[in-house]
Amino acid sequence: MNGNARPLCCLRERGANPPPKVYVSDGKGLSGMPGSREEHMNLKKQRGFSLLELLITVAIGFTIAGITFMALMPMFNKNHVDSAYDTVLMTLRNTRNLAIAQSHQYYVNFNPAGFPAGTMQVTYQPAAVAGILPPVQQVSTVQIPSDITFAVMSGFPSNAPDGFGTGITAIDFGQGLGGGSLSYVSFMPDGSSRDSAGNYNSGIVYLSRTASDRYSSRAITVWGATGRIRGWRLYLQGGVNKWAQQ
Length: 246
Known about the structure:
By secondary structure, the chain is an alpha+beta fold. It contains three helices and eleven strands, in the order αββααβββββββββ. β9 and β10 form a beta hairpin. The relative contact order is 0.11. The model is unreliable at 8-12 (pLDDT under 50).
């Protein structure tokens, strides 16, 4: 060793400057250098997202949610029509079964007075006592979805399901009786449907979502002589609207 050279430790003790720090270039900046890209990214990770980044993320989320909702709307509307159709169909069938099982006359009244539109009221006539019929008793009320109504739409064919009516009256029972449309079905203990005079009461009720296209509509018919209940759906065939049994 040179006799004039002094150890590094001695230089530090006397306040000498330490050796210069060496930085290595990685092509993106000087690694380890204060203010370098690497140090900037580490600082950003510690700081989190900026307000602008959060707003952009939220906006993208709302956009995706809106597109998804619009894509699913037709399915939601169809589910409401299907729900209303199933509700009316099962109410009629269950009421007919009650009339047979209980040996009473049961009624299904559509849109009865004093109830919201889209209501079905199920009532029954107790047996006569000493030749006098007691008042009709209410069994239950059933409500279809609020966006579905008992209604007809333009474009319904005049050739109605089972030949009941001409497609212009939403609740059209009392077919062939000559007394105008009736808004109720009355099931007898033998399963048939009759009016208050004992005549066979056949007819039809239409279900529509007026804010949608007509092809989502449904129809339900009741054949008076047997009480047979059928469901129908409108479809387009060869440019002509037709009802098909479901």
